Amino acid sequence: PFDDGDFAALPATGWTLLVQDVEKHYPPLRQLLANFDFLPNWRIDDLMVSVAGRGGSVGPHVDQYDVFLLQAAGRRRWQIARTFEPGLLPDCELNILERFEPEDDWILEPGDVLYLPPGVAHHGVALDQGMTWSFGMRAPSAADLMQSLGEWLAGRTEADQRYQDPDLRPARRSGEVDAAAIGRFRALVGDAPDDLAAFAGFLGAFLSRYRLAHEPAPPPRGLSLSELKGALERGAEMAHNPWTRLLWLDSGAATLLFAAGEAFECSRESAEAICDEGALRTAGAALIALDSNLILELLNRGHLILEPL
C-alpha cells in the first residue's frame, strides 16, 4: 500500500511501520527460525519486523501468544506489566491499553532478545531509528478451533442427516424444547470429535494452515520424475515453500503428512524427512527412492520447491 514517496515523507521521529510474514516474502530469513528448533515448528507463526523512527511505538498492548523480540538495529526501551487494567483506548483500531503502569523496564541493544509470555502487557519505544524482529508463536483460540471444527463437521457425510423425531409425543407445553429433543439434537451433532483418528485428521489440516491461509502457488509446469532426478544430479535442492506449513502426525490409523491443509498418507520415515528441511535438502535422492510419487505431488502442488544452486 506504500510507495517510495510515502517513506520519503516520514518525519524523523514518532512513527512505526509493521510488516508481517517477512520470512515468507523473503525466504532467506527462514534460517533464523532454526534458532527456535527447541519448539515444534507448527508452533511458529511468523516473523514480523517493526521499523521505527526515534520515539516510534505501537503503544502498550497485550498479546495472547508467546513472542520473542530480537533487537536487530538501534535501541528500544521495553516496559512490561503482569498486572494491568484491561480497558482499551476508545475509537482506536488497535487494541491499545488505556492505562499502563510498568513493573519492569529494559533497554535492548542490537542482538538482545526479550521473551514475552502470553498475557503480559508490554510497551516498546524506539530510542533510535531501528528495527525489532518479532518471532510470534501460534496459539489458536478456542473460538478459532471450534469455528474450524464446525466447518469440518459440516463437510462430513454425516452432515446430510436431518433432525427426526419418530417417537414424538403430543406437546404438553408448546414452547418447550424438552429433554428428549435436546438429546436428539445432541445425537445429530454426532460423536465425530470422539473419533480419535478423524479428529487427528482435522487437527492436522487445521494446524498446517497459516493464520493468513495463503495457498501455495504450483509451478508453471509440472515436473516428471526423470526431470526431478536430473535436477538433483545437477546440484538442485528441494525446500519448503514459505507459504506451506508442513507437519505430520500418527492418526492411530496411519501416518499422515499435512501441507497447507492437505493430507497425504505416507510412511513415518518419509513424513519426518519431508518436514525436516535440512534433511530434505541433503537427502533428496534417498527420499525419491522412498516415495517418488509423494515427492512429485508435493512439488507439483507447490508445497515443495526446487532450488537450483
The gist of it:
28% of the residues lie in helices and 24% in strands.
What do you see in this structure?
This protein is α+β, with helices and mostly antiparallel strands and 309 residues long. It folds into two domains: 4-137, Jelly Rolls; 141-153 and 194-308, 50S ribosomal protein L16 arginine hydroxylase, Chain A, Domain 2 (Malonyl-Coenzyme A Acyl Carrier Protein, domain 2, 3-Layer(aba) Sandwich), CATH 3.40.366. The chain is built from nine helices and 14 strands. The chain has helices spanning 4-8, 22-25, 142-154, 179-189, 196-207, 225-233, 268-275, 277-282, 284-300; strands at 16-19, 44-52, 61-62, 67-73, 76-81, 104-108, 113-116, 121-126, 130-137, 237-240, 246-250, 255-259, 262-265, 304-307. The strands form four sheets. It has a five-stranded antiparallel β-sheet with strand order 1-2-9-4-7. A four-stranded antiparallel β-sheet has the order 3-8-5-6, with no helix packed on it. Strands 11-12-13 form a three-stranded antiparallel β-sheet, with helices on both faces. Strand 12 and strand 13 form a beta hairpin. The longest helix is centred in the last third of the chain and has 17 residues, at 284-300. The radius of gyration is 25 Å and the shape is flat. 19% of the residues are buried.
